[in-house]
Write a structure and sequence with these properties.
The chain has a 5-stranded parallel β-sheet, with helices on both faces. It has a 4-stranded antiparallel β-sheet with strand order 6-7-8-9, covered by helices on one side. A 3-stranded antiparallel β-sheet has the order 10-12-11. About 45% of the residues lie in helices and about 20% in strands. It starts with a strand and ends with a strand. The longest helix has 19 residues. The protein has 2 domains: about 120 residues, Response regulator (Rossmann fold, 3-Layer(aba) Sandwich); about 90 residues, Winged helix-like DNA-binding domain superfamily/Winged helix DNA-binding domain (Arc Repressor Mutant, subunit A). It has about 220 residues and is of the alpha/beta class.
Length: about 220
């Protein structure tokens, strides 16, 4: 499990890094929100531990930005504030859990284990292909962590091809499954139009044409 720690208290951060490394976690550490955002673009993290009070950007704004950019892994918020308002604020910006300072390292490890179990369940419903992330539960699709706006039929079309990844599907099979109707005289033209529009949004190479047969997502 790869973790990014964002904490400007150097002493606390070093303690957390030591404990997590000793427990088998891969961990990287930064002190500022801007660094955290840059790191998240370059490296895939399974969990981010994020301090609410950072010197450059507030933790809640970093959290919100990460979610807007398509970061779907758990975020654990750390804060010295104990009031309910701060806790609600942190959770509302997209954090999955909240830990109040000071805390015991045993509690931090327990929270990480709980979020790890949640991540395992979450990953089963998230499909990553090339630069596309498709959350099958929420039906949200991101390209390079940017949310893509697809029509309902485009979402069903992409979902069908993604769920049948590696299989060539005939135009008739796709039409019947996605539109819910038996192919009519115009079905091939209708399908081609929607494939064309979908490719413009997700990328030309994601959906491949198998000439004379149908389409496939590798």
């Amino acid at each position: 499990m790869r973790i990014l720690l964002v904490e400007d208290n150097v002493k606390l951060a070093r303690n957390i890094v030591t404990v997590l490394k000793n427990n088998g976690y891969l961990i990287e550490y930064v002190t500022q929100g801007k660094e955290a955002l840059e790191k998240s673009y370059d490296t895939t993290f399974d969990l981010i531990i994020l301090d609410l009070a950072l010197p450059d950007i507030e933790g809640k704004d970093v959290c919100r930005k990460l979610r807007e950019e398509g970061f779907v892994s758990p975020i654990l918020m750390l804060t010295a504030k104990i009031n309910l308002e701060s806790k609600v604020e942190g959770l509302d910006c997209g954090a999955d859990d909240y830990l109040t300072k000071p805390f015991l390292m045993e509690e931090l490890l327990a929270r990480i284990r709980a979020l790890s179990r949640r991540l395992s369940h979450q990953k089963s419903s998230v499909v990553n292909i090339q630069n596309i992330t498709f959350d099958l539960s929420s039906k949200l699709i991101h390209k390079n962590r940017k949310l893509i706006n697809l029509t309902p039929i485009e979402k069903r079309l992409l979902e069908y091809l993604v769920l049948n990844r590696g299989e060539v599907k005939t135009s008739g099979e796709i039409y019947e499954s996605v539109w819910g109707n038996s192919p009519d005289l115009d079905f091939s033209s209708t399908l081609k139009t929607h494939i064309f529009r979908l490719r413009k949004k997700v990328g030309e190479d994601l959906i491949q044409t198998v000439t004379g047969f149908g389409y496939i997502v590798q």
